[in-house]
Amino acid sequence: MRYNQRMDKKIREIISQAKEKLENVKSKDDLEQIYVDLFGKNSPLTSLTKKISSLDLSQKPKAGQQINKAKKGLEKLYEVAKQNTRYRIQDTTPIDPTAPGKKQEIGHLHLVSQAIEEIVEIFTRLGYSLQSYPEIDWDFYTFESLNMPKDHPARDEWETFFAKAKPDSKLGNQVLTPHTSNSQVREMQRVKNPPVRMINIARCYRRQIDVSHTPMFHQFEGLLIDKKVSIPNLKGTFDFFTQNFFGSDRVTRLRPHHFRFTEPSFEVDVICGICKGFGCRICKSGWLELGGAGMVHPKVLKAGGIDPEKYMGFAFGWGVERTIAMKTNLPDIRPLYQNDIRFLEQF
Amino acid sequence: MNIKIPVSWLREYLKTDVAAKTLANYLTLCGPSVERVEKKGSDYIFDVEITSNRFDAASVFGLAREAHAILSSQNIKSTLTSPKGINLNLEPDVAKHLALDVLIKKDTLCPRFAVIVVDNVKVKPSPAYIRSRLEASGIRAINNIVDISNYLMLEMGQPMHTFDFDKIIGAKMILTEAQLGEKITTLDGSTRSLPAGSIVIRDSKRLIDLCGIMGGANSRVSRRTKRVVIFVQSYDPVQIRKTTQALGFRTEAASRFEKGVDVEQIPAALSRAVFLAKQIAGARIASELIDIYKNAPESPKITLDFIKLNNYLGINLDPLAAANILAKLGFEVTKAENQLQAVPPSWRSRDIEDDVDLIEEIARIYGYHNLPAKLPSGQIPRSSESRLKDIIELKKALKFLGLTEIISYSIISRDLLQLTKTPTSQIVELANPLTEIWQFMRPSILPSLLQTLTQNINLSQNLKLFEVAKTYIAQKNALPKQDLMLSIVLAGADFYRVKGLIENVFEILKRPLRWQASSKNNPLFSPNQSAEIKIGEQVVGSIGVVSSNVTDFFNIKTPVAAAEINLTKIYQLPVTSYQYKPIPKYPPVIEDISAIFAKAVSVAEIVETIKKATVLVKKVEVIDIFESEKIGENKKSVSLKLTYQKTTATPTQSEVDEQKAKIIASLEKEFRAKIRK
């Protein structure tokens, strides 16, 4: 018993001394010396082993086990220290900084997502909240409530896809929304009491395809309703957006236009980034068309359950793809949806 | 619609010193946009965009009238001159008047019908100036009589038609509605079968005109024509539109009639046509003027409040200036102290309905460019955000996990749809598809992702792609269900790789998930290598290795692992809340244990059994699973790392041994597991 206790103590001493030495290894030589010290002919562990033969028969196995365990422990400690030391030694070998690094793999976000993120970030700073509304919606929200009664020729301007479904007796056909303006009356119905500051980004669909049109595209809709809202407020909002999105030297202008759901209606242009308004090969007139906008038509407010005598507002919408084309000089928007990995990996 | 207008022609009616480009700029800022100015010889051609409400400006004179209002409001000197011959005395030139019998069956079809017959006509080519102006606008010159009607459509915006008087059988014109399937051969030589309700003119025997769209070949003016019926009119725009849509045939005249023409201008246009016929074809008036105009529309008187006007403008505009602008645009204006009243001119009567329309007129002529720019100052609403920001965050996380985002069309072909085995009642089909490849709204994103994989497989073998988009499931008597999905495909990966990725995703989404083998698996996946993803009892997605039928369809040779999860459902469920747990003071004892199990035993069952057997084990981790012949058929070896931990002290070896014995006993009892030493 006493002997074993003494042996325990001795072993603990050996281990703690070894730990200390191993922590202070500075070089390969140090490490080799320690190996000899720990496991060599004259090591304390070896001398302990030698003593076993002098023990009582009953104590021998136990002592043997203790020493073996200690030896294994020391070997483990030594291995760890050796590994650490090896790295330290390797650190000093010269490297070639121009050789390739070992990278983690990173993927790519689609250009449309990147543009959406930027747009969202800019408008959230102005207090707009993000809402999501159906992409297949009733005729009522898509046309009728937007001051476009059935058979109105203005509907022809949107090359609309319809879903094969039974029409609702009040809300009409199911329509693949050709614009995001179906969110206007839906948002008014949700909020009920203005102020309203909404943005909605969704996939839209039109029956056309050419260099500047794909049957599916993304549109961005903004709606602001309050007690007093003016055309200068819309101008200010557009300047804020374009200067943040395209650059501080990019101003906007409004041109008269016509939409059934806004009055007055505008088309919004951004000054060309290349010629700065003088007219060049890209822009032709010095300005690039961004999208449509206008002051919400009183009939639309009424359709959304908001009193046009008390409230007014503005709305705007444009294609996300268009803003990308304007920012990146993409001549054809169709590659956005062809998903060639060589295209996607550029961004 | 875009129209091309030579500036030299415009200057016949608009006298001003400003240069063509300056004029284009003013029009663009305050009226119809001049999209391009093209130099042609010594002349400029304006390419003008006309919006559907402003067909009053879709002619040379109409645009001159608009430009004059704009320039004079901007204090630039200009004068407006009317086309010559619009106020002729239309008394017959001959003693013996030709008789023409006109009957309108339904007044609403044709609000105004004006007609006159001329004789002594010499049909020949038009003078050079008319031919070149028509050709500049893309209209082929035919002969002097036909050219007059096209010329006047460009000049005054009024479409008209000419008939050979001698080809109208019985000198009778009956304006009526066509019966379904009635046929007429139009001037272009096509024989058209008409939809019911089309407006037509018949003589005493046959149809001679498809009104507002194209004349009949049987009554056309030819080289031998001597007597001509000059016919100027307006029609019910809705009926014209219905007919053009049904026939799929639209002429320039039809698009103008669809928008509505200025009825008050009809006599002037007719007079101008007679003037030109006399001048270039030697015509004489041979009949009385017939002008049927029963219900002249009442022009609305609209009141505009000045406070409201200035709320829109955001400035204080002098009421007199506002009234002046309207007057220059041809409105009859009476001004009171706080408001004005305005009656629109006849050429704007369809467009101007409310006070907001007046506000637009004043604002645009004042100039949007002259208004300040100012951010709104109102209160910022407290609104609940949609998930868009979370989605952006999720997409970015996926990017940093090495995946590439694609965006593919939500409309797919029948072939792709069939892979999803969607029940018919849940399919959303387009009623009017553009092509066969875009025919159905997709119920799953996965087929599109697989298609993208195929398309790129020669460029990269191990693509990792994702897409976030709404999917569409038809519902009875409601809009389709439009849940937002995240779909992932990993080429060259196995089940556990995509499972690991989904586990990452749920950590980002901060929701706890469960895995369950199921008999109702996604038909795209191999039945043995797929599962349902659940939160609580709700299925929120599916995961698996894409079945070889499907990869064969896409001709993909590598294995593909995939998953699709329903973000709409997931975002509605509560986020895992994190609660502080003290960091253990005493180190644990960690020991490994390996055992051989039947292959069918799941890891979840093993872990559950261990946790049931002892409370001392706080963590069970699988470190290795393997199968081999040595172990035996239908067996597998599972190695686990067990963490024994107590809050009061490090467990002693004897405590650990005791619990380990219990664990082994349980595993042996539950699964007949064989512990490996």
What does this structure look like?
- The complex is a heterodimer of chains A (about 350) and B (about 675).
- Chain A has 11 helices and 10 strands.
- Chain A has about 350 residues and is of the alpha+beta class.
- In chain A, helix 1 packs parallel to helix 4, helix 3 runs antiparallel to helix 4 and helix 5 packs across helix 10.
- The mean pLDDT of chain A is about 90.
- Chain B contains 19 helices and 36 strands.
- In chain B, strand 19 and strand 20 form a beta hairpin.
- In chain B, helix 6 runs antiparallel to helix 7.
- The chains are: A alpha+beta (about 350), B alpha+beta (about 675).
- Chains A and B meet through helix 5, strand 1, strand 2, strand 3 and strand 5 of A and helix 2, strand 3, helix 6, helix 9 and helix 11 of B.
Using only C-alpha atoms, the radius of gyration of chain B works out to 40 Å
Reported for the largest beta sheet of chain A, the result is:
7 strands, mixed
Q: Into which percent range does the helicity of residues of chain B fall?
A: 25-40%
Please give the order of strands in the largest beta sheet of chain A.
1-5-6-10-9-8-7
State the total count of DSSP E strands of chain A. Answer: 10
Biggest interface and its residues per chain? A-B, 92 and 91 residues
Classification by helices and strands of chain A? alpha+beta
Mean of pLDDT of chain B? 94
Count of helix runs of chain B: 19
- Number of DSSP E strands of chain B: 36
Compressed to H and E, one letter per element, the order of chain A equals: HHHHHEEHEEHEEHEEEHEHH
Helices of chain A, by number, come to: 11
Shape annotation of chain A? elongated
What is the CA-atom radius of gyration of chain A, in angstroms?
38 Å
Q: What kind of assembly state do the chains in view correspond to?
A: heterodimer
Euclidean distance between termini CA atoms of chain B: 86 Å
Regions with little confidence, pLDDT below 50 for 5+ residues of chain A: none
* Main pleated-sheet profile of chain B: 7 strands, mixed
**Ranges of chain B with pLDDT <50 over ≥5 residues?**
none
Overall pLDDT level of chain A: 88
